[in-house]
Design goal:
By secondary structure, this protein is mainly α. It has a domain of 35 residues. 70% of the residues lie in helices and 0% in strands. The chain contains three helices and no strands.
């Protein structure tokens, strides 16, 4: 996949992240009954994606 996108501008729409986070939150919050547990997962996902972007910014030439 890296080779397929190398040198190209790739846009990942925010709705893609929304769909992933919503499903993960719903699963971890036990169908929205344990909201705090779901939010804990969302915060973890935010940290994880931030780390990926920060650590691979140069490799993938990420602008934003």
């Amino acid at each position: 996949m890296v080779e397929a996108i190398r040198g190209k501008h790739v846009i990942i729409h925010s709705i893609c992240f929304h769909e992933l986070v919503y499903a993960a939150h719903k699963l971890e919050s036990d169908g929205k009954r344990d909201v705090e547990n779901g939010l804990k997962l969302v915060r973890g996902l935010i940290r994880a994606y931030s780390n990926v972007v920060d650590k691979h910014r140069h490799f993938f030439e990420i602008e934003n």
